[in-house]
């Protein structure tokens, strides 16, 4: 009995062990089957992906390495190669034809169209100065007769009136700005023989606010002394000697001692017949100076600056111009007139509280030929930032500066400094013989130099600091009728 029980017990123990092994084999087989199915799915996905890529490649059309014929030629990634070129960014910006400047922004006066970018071109020297683009708000405009430079200057300053700016023209030799001044509500003062207007250049002028009596007296005396000296040197065509300076200072002091409002005839009388001159030395020292100034009193300029002023300078007007077109004398006398007229305006011009103002020097070659006027212009240009002035000098060609003084002279240096202190240079069409001097003076690239003789009417090369633009000036029909001097000349011919 005991043996049978042992066999039964061992059978019961063996049966569960076999069952467990069978179950484990089944589980392993099921797991292996699942892994195999997953691998088959992954391989199927890979095959499908590769088949799709092959189909896409077969459906893609590639450009032939030799390029396409006809209008599509050279459109190839293969054989078309350009030689490498290394240069500065400043040179490439002007030489590479597929780049265009983004312009100067949208703040300022609309000028016209940028011919390279096709966008609007806007310019304002005060905005550019405030933004740090330029360091001097002075402008130089050069172009041959009929190129449109005068129309550009007129539209530039008249469009600025809407921004609260004012315009001063200390001398208009051809009277081109008279109609503009009257049209904008300003004043054009015509000077000439037989005309009623008279200006006393020794007037105290406009007194800036906040100036003490002592400062104002010293300023007036200094301005009068400088004016008389400038007039004398203009007429004499030479610098004054120390003895002549003393004679002028003595005559001015004596005149101001006995007269509240001195006039030039009084100065001349004291120069030619000085008081308290027992030995006659003072009369001899001031003889040449007195006779030089006498031309403004009793000579060919009598009746213009030899008496009290009939006009009152109103700095609140939007524009004031001194029309000198009725004076047909030589350039020396024109320069004397402009010296007197600029001194008459100078008190208001140099008032820091006077706001932002344009000062236009038309026919600048006349001014630069006279040392006294050139020094006055240089002072105004150097003080432009302090007094809120934007000076604009208009002439025909840059080589006009070479006619100022001798090579290496102080006058030549002053003339070149005017160009150096103008970071906005606008060059209109130039003759072929002027391309070399213009390019050398302004640092033009070869591409810019070649463009100058091809520019049309109203098209100009704008050089502003390190940037260049080709701009087509655009005029409103009313502006065109008002500014176009060529049509008025044709009407009178």
Description of the structure:
By secondary structure, the chain is of the alpha/beta class. The protein has two domains: about 1-55; about 120-490, Rossmann fold (3-Layer(aba) Sandwich). It is built from 19 helices and eleven strands. The chain has an eleven-stranded mixed sheet. α6 packs antiparallel against α11 (about 330-350). The longest helix is centred in the first third of the chain and has 58 residues, at about 1-60.
Ends apart, CA distance between termini: 157 Å
What's the number of helices? 19
**CATH homologous superfamily of the largest domain?**
P-loop containing nucleotide triphosphate hydrolases
Spans with pLDDT under 50 lasting ≥5 residues? 487-493
Residues in β-strands, percent:
5-15%
Percent of residues in helices: 40-55%
Q: In terms of structural class, how would the helical and strand content be classed?
A: alpha/beta
* Secondary-structure element pattern, one letter each: HHEEHEHEHEHHHHHEHEHHHEHEHHEEHH
Keywords, separated by commas or semicolons:
493 residues; alpha/beta; Rossmann fold; 2 domains; eleven-stranded mixed beta sheet; elongated
């Amino acid at each position: 009995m005991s043996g049978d029980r042992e066999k039964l017990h061992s059978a019961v123990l063996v049966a569960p062990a076999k069952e467990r092994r069978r179950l484990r084999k089944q589980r392993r087989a099921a797991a292996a089957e699942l892994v195999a199915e997953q691998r088959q799915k992954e391989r199927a996905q890979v095959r499908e992906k590769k088949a799709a890529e092959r189909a896409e490649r077969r459906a893609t059309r590639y450009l032939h390495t030799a390029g396409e014929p006809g209008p599509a030629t050279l459109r190839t990634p293969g054989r078309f190669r350009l030689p490498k070129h290394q240069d500065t960014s400043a040179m490439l910006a002007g030489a590479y034809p597929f780049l265009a400047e983004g312009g100067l922004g949208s703040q300022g006066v609309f000028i016209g169209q940028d011919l390279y970018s096709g966008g609007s071109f806007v310019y304002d020297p005060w905005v550019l100065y405030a933004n740090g683009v330029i360091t001097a708000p002075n402008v130089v405009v050069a172009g041959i007769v009929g190129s449109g430079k005068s129309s550009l200057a007129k539209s530039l300053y008249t469009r600025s009136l809407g921004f609260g700016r004012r315009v001063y023209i200390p001398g208009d030799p051809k009277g081109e700005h008279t109609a503009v001044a009257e049209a904008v509500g300003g004043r054009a003062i015509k000077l000439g023989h037989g005309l009623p207007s008279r200006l006393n250049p020794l007037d105290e002028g406009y007194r800036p606010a906040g100036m003490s009596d002592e400062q104002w007296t010293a300023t007036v005396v200094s301005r009068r002394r400088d004016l008389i000296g400038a007039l004398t040197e203009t007429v004499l065509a030479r610098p004054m000697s120390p003895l002549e300076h003393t004679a002028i200072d003595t005559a001015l002091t004596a005149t101001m001692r006995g007269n509240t409002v001195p006039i030039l005839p009084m100065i001349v009388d004291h120069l030619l017949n000085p008081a308290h001159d027992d030995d006659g030395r003072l009369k001899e020292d001031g003889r040449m100076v007195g006779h030089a100034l006498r031309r403004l009193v009793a000579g060919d300029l009598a009746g213009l600056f030899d008496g009290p002023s009939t006009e009152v300078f109103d700095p609140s007007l939007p524009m004031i111009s001194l029309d000198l077109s009725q004076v047909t004398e030589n350039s020396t006398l024109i320069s004397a007139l402009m010296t007197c007229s600029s001194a008459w305006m100078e008190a208001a011009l140099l008032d820091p509280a006077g706001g932002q103002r344009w000062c236009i020097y038309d026919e600048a070659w006349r001014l630069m030929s006279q040392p006294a006027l050139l020094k006055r212009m240089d002072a105004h240009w150097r003080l432009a930032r302090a007094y809120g002035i934007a000076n604009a000098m208009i002439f025909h060609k840059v080589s006009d500066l070479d006619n100022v003084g001798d090579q290496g002279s102080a006058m030549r240096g002053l003339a070149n400094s005017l160009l150096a202190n103008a970071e906005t240079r606008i060059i209109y069409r130039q003759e072929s013989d002027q391309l070399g001097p213009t390019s050398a003076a302004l640092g033009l690239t070869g591409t810019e130099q070649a463009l100058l003789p091809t520019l049309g009417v109203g098209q100009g090369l704008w050089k502003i600091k390190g940037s260049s633009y080709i701009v087509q000036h655009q005029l409103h029909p009313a502006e065109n009728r008002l500014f176009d001097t060529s049509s008025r000349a044709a009407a009178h011919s």
